Amino acid sequence: MKRALFPGSFDPITNGHYDIIKRGIKLFDEVVVAIGINAEKKYMFPLDERKAFIKKSFENEPKVKVVTYEGLTIDFCDKIDAQFILRGLRNPADFEFEKAIAHTNRKLSKIETVFLLTAAKTSFISSSIVRDVIRNHGDYTQLVPDSVRIDK
Ligand code: ADP
Predict the structure, then answer these.
(1) Among 59, 58, 80, which residue's Cα sits nearest to residue 69?
(2) CA-closest residue to ligand 1 atom 17
(3) So what's the pLDDT on residue 152?
(4) How many helices (H) and strands (E) does the chain have?
(5) Is domain 3-135 given the CATH code 3.30.420.40 in the classification?
(6) In terms of Cα–Cα distance, which of 152, 5, 140, 3 is closest to 72?
(7) Which helix (H) or strand (E) holds 148?
(8) CA atoms within 13 A on the CB side of 5
(9) pLDDT tens readout for residues 113-135
(10) What does the domain layout of the chain look like in residue ranges?
């Protein structure tokens, strides 16, 4: 079974992530969306909420699983038998950043990183911009899947 891990913070999931996952399931038998736990990072949404948003977005899609993990992404891939890491690329800055990580992961393991270029219509979206819009009471609903609704 071809299994890909899609790691990230997903704070919160955006239409950009959604697009990558949707396209990922056409390439792989299973896409495991993996929320990395980083004790040093401050998040807007608690882990269980971030997980619930993603689960709800893909409740009718059996090829998508949602998990949380700690530690090295490649170690977690080994643990769940994922042969691929899936990542999205928006711009040259993403590319430079992702290139270093992918090379390191290749050095340390056999896991291949597969990059999908963002859809043009979601390429400008980032979780940090979404958080800014939310914080300032803007209409974030056009930037995220319907499952992301905040009653704050
Ligand atoms: P991280 O903490 O790793 O930056 P994110 O949740 O921000 O986690 O992103 C996870 C993955 O989703 C990364 O591969 C990132 O490039 C990709 N991604 C983020 N936003 C978009 C977008 N608008 N379109 C496509 N891919 C995206």
Answers:
(1) 80
(2) 88
(3) 56
(4) 5, 5
(5) no
(6) 5
(7) none
(8) 26
(9) 999 999 999 999 999 999 999 99
(10) 3-135
Query: What number of other Cβ atoms are within 10 A of residue 25's Cβ?
Result: 17
Residue with tokens 């080994």: 78
Q: Which tokens belong to 97?
A: 């950043």
Strand, coil or helix: 144? coil
In the chain, the amino acid numbered 82 is A
List the catalytic residue out of 26, 41, 42, 152.
41
**Residue linked to tokens 């969306």:** 33
What letter does residue 31 receive in the DSSP assignment? E
Identity of residue 148: V
Which of 47, 51, 118 has the most ligand 1 atoms within 8 A of CB, as the residue to mutate? 118
Query: Could you tell me the two tokens for 111?
Result: 């896991």
